[in-house]
Amino acid sequence: MTGVIVLIIIGLFLFVVEFLLIPGITVAGIGGVVCLTGGIFWAYSGYGNTVGNITLISTFAATVITIAFALRPKTWSKFMLNTNVEGSVASDELAQIKPGDEGVSVSRLTPMGKVRINEVVLEARSTGNYIDQKTPIVVIRLEGSVAIVKLKN
Questions:
Q1: Distance between CA atoms of 80 and 25, rounded to whole angstroms?
Q2: Which residues pair with 104 in a beta bridge?
Q3: What are residue 86's phi and psi, to 5 degrees?
Q4: The dihedral of CA 51, 55, 58, 61: what is its sign?
Q5: What is the pLDDT of residue 78?
Q6: What is the pLDDT of residue 38?
Q7: According to the model, what pLDDT value does residue 115 have?
Q8: What is the CATH number of domain 91-151?
Q9: Which residues contact 51 (CB under 8 A, 6 or more apart)?
Q10: Average pLDDT along the chain, 153 residues, taken 10 residues at a time
Q11: What integer pLDDT is reported at residue 152 of this predicted model?
Q12: Three-state DSSP class for 152?
């Protein structure tokens, strides 16, 4: 009987691994099903119908309890990163840049790249054209911390 219990515990462990660590249909999930089915089959074939029925009902209850425990929010909070990101873009530098300001591309804009505007280097996106390095540009607008630029005419 110890072998049946060990096989069922291994199956439940593999289900927990499947739910928490590697979700999807993987070797752990298939292994869990095989272990649980094998344990129940072993109980029926080795110990008779009464023990097999008790094993089946106990395994079903243990599986439901294990899944319910694995899906609780407190269980997931142990795996989550609980830090706050408190960084921001230097907004005082961005405040210096306005539509119509002129600058030069630091890198090639294809369509994203770096530009220098008012001695501030920042990410920029062209309006669709590729802009070569060291080419004069004009700011059309700002979208967050990205300047939308075009070639200077």
A1: 22
A2: 116, 136
A3: -120, 35
A4: negative
A5: 67
A6: 93
A7: 92
A8: 2.40.50.140
A9: 1, 43, 44
A10: 89 83 79 91 91 92 85 70 60 79 91 89 87 92 88 83
A11: 84
A12: coil
Structural contact between residues 121 and 144, judged by C-beta atoms closer than 8 angstroms: no
Would you list the domain boundaries of the chain? 2-77, 91-151
Q: Is there a contact between 66 and 15 (Cβ–Cβ < 8 Å)?
A: yes
Question: What is the secondary structure of 86-129 as a DSSP string?
Answer: -----HHHHHT--TT-EEEESS-BSSEEEEEETTEEEEEEESSS
Sign of the Cα pseudo-torsion (30, 36, 39, 41, in order): negative
At 114, list the tokens: 């770096």
Neighbours of 100 (CB within 10 A): 9
What is the structure's pLDDT at 144? 82
pTM over 0.70, yes/no: no
What Cα–Cα distance (Å) separates residue 93 from each residue in 2, 35, 65, 131?
Answer: 70, 61, 56, 23
